[in-house]
UniProtKB/TrEMBL annotation:
Coiled coil: 791-858
Classification via SMART domains: TPR (SM00028)
InterPro entries named in the record: TPR-like_helical_dom_sf, TPR_rpt
Organism: Desulfofarcimen acetoxidans (strain ATCC 49208 / DSM 771 / KCTC 5769 / VKM B-1644 / 5575) (Desulfotomaculum acetoxidans)
Keywords attached to this entry: Coiled coil
Protein name: Tetratricopeptide domain protein
PANTHER family: FUNGAL LIPASE-LIKE DOMAIN-CONTAINING PROTEIN, KINESIN LIGHT CHAIN
Highest taxon of the lineage: Bacteria
């Protein structure tokens, strides 16, 4: 029994020992990442917060004079708000943090992370759950440069920790705000430590037995840390000591140091030797370091490391070049320093990695961003060539490399270089994803996929839109596996918005309706997360939703989707008011203009086109050529399209010419900015639009000259669009080119130009079939039918008319399920015209029946309220063909149908508005009544015929139309004679 008890005791002791070892090892790992782990505020020593500045020789004084900002910090912490303290160098930010912690009661625990790369998100367990958690980030902008910091930060927020942070004012704060606070909206504002006056500085100096330094800059710390005495101290240094401090400063500015300004002695020696040509013995080296330590510039640590006072390093210790004034001179000094150190440490993986990250973050807040990013790229690529990275470092290095390339792509104005930078970024992001990601770093996995999607989206705009937009969709969907609505609502919304944009790009080249539906779904999901998004992002999502509805309207439910688009854009106006967001306001106006333009093809063409032009012209007041040449050119292009549509809706020839010439003028102006070299795709689009305008103008004047100009413009577009690059745009250009050849065929070499047009349409149909572009397929068949119809006038009349019928019927089938009323109606109208011509050649009765049947169907798409001209023209043709059919079959019914058609036409052709058309229709109506009177021997029909002839003669008078007057007069005498004998 005793043996069993002994064995059990041993087992318990072993288990306890193992658990203790695990806890101890875990604690030791945590100590590598944290300075303070959940201690009560009163137990936190000042050096844990303030580092060296907690030492008397570096300015620490027990006396502390509270300021207005301290009271505000306490109030915010008491209410559980996150606090960000800002101020100039030596304003006392770190001391404010320490004093705020010291003033807290017992109901808090403090966690202080170290400034290190994070291998994963390991937040120490907080056992005293009843106490509030405070996490301190002194110089939080520096933490941003560390691997996986965002992961850690989010995990802390998730655990309801209160963030107490500091950040230096100026570029450091701007960079921080851009990277963290803009994304997470963590800090509602910031507590700024104001500069102190000279009088307050004198009082503080008197209380602490100090003196206010000459050149006092308003920072309290300057009274205690004698930064302004640096010059005098430097004068007491020897040449080699100055070179050592200059080397430290070079390393500091390039980010090549550990934690908080701890430098490798070996690296300092390398810089001294190679940059400043310092060559001394180990004894002399130790002597110089000892001297600098006595003067307070640095401290010699164990393990061949040096600790230098950051404030001294920032105030140009030992290097005159650092005193350069102005951002341009300072940037050049920093850039030269980066290149010098890259040469020195070309075999040092850690130094290159650190240098690259520093260059990247310098670039984020510099006017010379691209130059800094190129330095980062060079450093990262050199580090990769050394093959010294472990898996996690390798993934981080590739991610940083990709981020630098992405930044270059966002700033570079050369389109080819921008695309190349994107391709390099994609390569690096995918390489980072190829490394097995630690399960605790899923946020980084999502972030890489998000950025990868952004790069593919940029590439999709330039080339291979189908492939790149599809890859962007895949990347965003991968990110959304981590960015769930519950865990990461803001990232979920932002990624859904980007996913919608990727689907919209994809819709431009494949499955337009399907991809627009998917885009709309994504935008709606983004908008569902209203509370998690800044209002500007919600407004942008509304605009994106509206644009997707407008694109969908081109394929389905045109009217309803356009109205939905306009409604979505108007929601964006609630945020994008012109006084606060003039550029976004202009962008929204342009989008509304496009929606009205698209709506014009469904109803009220002239009215909606004028609304579109009004919106575009207001938008262009903000997006001027001088400030926004690309956007200016885009709006000009849209104004041109609206004027072309106005010309098509107009019946007055002079006004049509005016609108078309206006369109051509703005297209040409647009091409001054949309050049072939810089914006090839936009250049080609505008050339196509110019060609279409010339073709429409050719129908009104100078047909041959304008048709040739149209052909030249479309051929210019084909220099950009090819089967391998943007095949759908290539197919669309072929169709437009075919139409231009049909226009030219009216005047010159009809057979040759019509044949070319037919061949262009056939080639385009192959691409539309492959990509499931039903609408474009239908419109191309329509154009091919026009070409065959015109070709029938030159050769093989009957055969080509039959081919025209086939083409129109194919367009009819493709359009049957689509809501494209005007296009569908035009196809039916042309089909009926073709049947009417065929009736003159063969199967007269059968073809006349088909003619009348198709005209009746076409009228459904041209209601009198919105398409009066088309309605009346078709009714006239219908009446004429019913008259012809009445001669062959069912004479009485067909004559009645003819009468009905002519009467319907007279609903449009009023005498005071269309006098000639009115009189001509009255004469035709009289003829139809005459035929009907013969069949029924009806006096009423003869009387109606006589009335119709007399109405015609009110316009066709003997003086104005002598020949027509005689014809109508004979018709009247004949019908009166018939009436007398009936």
């Amino acid at each position: 029994m005793a043996g069993i008890v002994r064995e059990a005791a041993v087992a318990v002791i072993v288990v306890i020992a193992v658990l203790a070892a695990i806890i101890y090892c875990g604690r030791m790992r945590q100590k590598k990442c944290y300075t303070v782990i959940w201690k009560k505020p009163g137990a936190v020593a000042p050096e844990k917060v303030m580092c060296c500045y907690a030492l008397p020789e570096y300015g620490y004084n027990e006396y502390y004079q509270e300021r207005e900002s301290d009271e505000k910090i306490k109030e915010m912490l008491a209410t559980g708000e996150h606090v960000l303290i800002t101020g100039i160098t030596l304003s006392g930010k770190s001391r404010s943090i320490y004093q705020a912690l010291a003033a807290l009661g017992r109901g808090y625990d403090v966690l202080i992370p170290r400034l290190v790369d994070w291998p994963g998100v390991r937040v120490p367990w907080h056992f005293c759950f009843w106490r509030k958690k405070i996490v301190v980030f002194d110089d939080i902008n520096e933490f941003l440069k560390k691997q996986n910091f965002i992961c850690l930060f989010r995990e802390l927020l998730k655990r309801k920790a209160i963030i107490l942070a500091s950040c230096r004012s100026g570029t450091d704060y701007d960079g921080f705000y851009e990277k963290i606070n803009r994304e997470l909206a963590v800090f509602a504002g910031h507590v700024h430590i104001a500069d102190i006056s000279w009088e307050a500085a004198e009082r503080l100096a008197a209380m602490t037995r100090r003196e206010v330094p000459h050149g006092f800059d308003g920072s309290a710390g300057a009274i205690f840390l004698r930064v302004h005495e640096t010059g005098a101290l430097c004068k007491s240094c020897g040449e080699q000591e100055k070179n050592i401090m200059a080397s430290l400063r070079c390393l500091y500015l390039a980010g090549v140091y550990k934690k908080r300004e701890i430098f490798s002695t070996d690296r300092v020696k390398q810089v001294c030797c190679k940059k400043y040509e310092v060559d001394c013995t180990a004894y002399d080296w130790d002597k110089y370091l000892s001297s600098l330590q006595k003067k307070g510039f640095l401290r010699v640590l164990k393990n061949r490391q040096l600790w230098a006072v950051k404030t001294y390093l920032e105030h140009s210790v030992g290097d005159a070049a650092a005193n350069l004034d102005g951002p341009v001179a300072r940037d050049q000094f920093l850039i030269d320093n980066f290149y010098d150190l890259m040469d020195i440490f070309n075999e040092d993986f850690i130094a290159l990695f650190s240098l690259g990250k520093q260059a990247y973050y310098r670039g984020m807040s510099s006017q010379r961003e691209v130059q800094y990013m190129m330095i980062a790229v060079a450093a990262f690529e050199q580090a990769l060539r050394l093959e010294a990275a472990g898996a996690e470092d390798y993934a981080a290095l590739q991610f940083n490399l990709a981020s630098a390339y992405s930044s270059i792509a966002g700033k570079d104005e050369d389109e080819e270089e921008k695309a190349e930078a994107c391709r390099q970024a994609v390569k690096a992001y995918e390489e980072a994803l190829s490394v097995k990601i630690n399960c605790l770093c899923l946020f980084d996995f999502a972030r890489i996929n998000y950025e990868l999607g952004n790069c593919y989206s940029i590439l999709a705009v330039r080339d291979n839109k189908s492939h790149n937009s599809k890859k962007a969709v895949q990347a965003y969907r991968a990110a959304l596996k981590v960015y769930t609505a519950k865990r990461f609502p803001e990232e979920f919304a932002r990624t859904q918005n980007k996913l919608g944009l990727a689907f919209s790009l994809w819709a431009e080249v494949e499955d337009k309706a399907g991809n627009c539906d998917r885009a709309i779904e994504s935008f709606k999901k983004a908008l569902e997360m209203q509370a998690a998004q800044p209002e500007t992002e919600r407004a942008s999502a509304q605009n994106n939703l509206g644009a997707a509805y407008t694109m969908l309207a081109e394929s389905r439910d045109r009217r309803d989707n356009c109205l939905r688009a306009i409604q979505a854009h108007e929601q964006a106006f609630k945020v994008f008011v012109k006084d606060e967001y003039p550029m976004e306001y202009a962008c929204t106006l342009a989008a509304i203009g496009r929606a009205y333009y698209t709506l014009s093809w469904a109803e009220n063409k002239t009215e909606n086109c004028l609304k579109a032009v009004k919106a575009y012209e207001e938008a262009i007041e903000y997006r001027t050529a001088a400030l926004f040449p690309v956007q200016y050119a885009s709006i000009l292009n849209n104004i041109g399209k609206a004027h072309c549509a106005l010309a098509e809706a107009e019946e007055n020839g002079e006004k049509q010419i005016k609108y078309l010439k206006k369109a051509i003028g703005v297209y040409c102006d647009s091409l001054n900015y949309r050049t072939f070299r810089n914006y090839p795709v936009e250049y080609a689009v505008t050339q196509n639009n110019t060609g279409s305008a010339y073709r429409l103008l050719a129908a009104l004047e100078q047909r041959k000259e304008n048709s040739l100009l149209a052909i030249a413009a479309h051929e210019e577009a084909l220099k950009v669009f090819s089967p391998g690059n943007l095949p759908i745009q290539y197919a669309g250009t072929l169709v437009k080119l075919g139409k231009a050849h049909v226009s030219l065929a009216v005047e010159a070499d009809k057979a040759r130009h019509c044949t070319r047009a037919i061949n262009y349409c056939r080639e385009a149909l192959d691409y539309y079939d492959r990509q499931m572009y039903s609408v474009e397929h239908a419109l191309t068949c329509f154009s091919m039918g026009d070409a065959y119809l015109l070709l029938s006038e030159a050769e093989d009349e009957e055969e080509n008319l039959k081919r025209a019928v086939q083409a129109y019927e194919q367009a009819f089938k493709k359009s049957k399920r689509l809501d494209l009323p005007l296009d569908y109606g035009d196809a039916l109208h042309k089909l009926a015209d073709t049947f009417s011509k065929l009736a003159e050649l063969a199967n007269k009765e059968d073809n006349l029946k088909k003619t009348c049947q198709v005209y009746e169907e076409a009228l459904k798409y041209f209601p009198i309220e919105s398409s009066a001209g088309q309605f009346a023209a078709i009714q006239i043709k219908l009446g004429h063909n019913y008259n012809l059919l009445a001669e062959l079959a069912d004479r009485e019914q067909n004559s009645r149908n003819a009468v009905k058609a002519f009467r319907e036409a007279l609903r449009v052709y009023k005498r005071d508005i269309y006098p000639v058309q009115y009189a001509s229709t009255c004469n035709k109506l009289g003829n139809a009544y005459t035929v009907l009177g013969r069949l029924e021997n009806s006096a009423a029909n003869y009387n109606n015929a006589a009335v119709s002839y007399r109405n015609a003669m009110t316009v066709f008078t003997k003086e104005a139309f002598p020949e027509v007057y005689q014809v109508v007069e004979r018709n009247l005498y004949r019908v009166l004679h018939m009436a007398d004998n009936s």
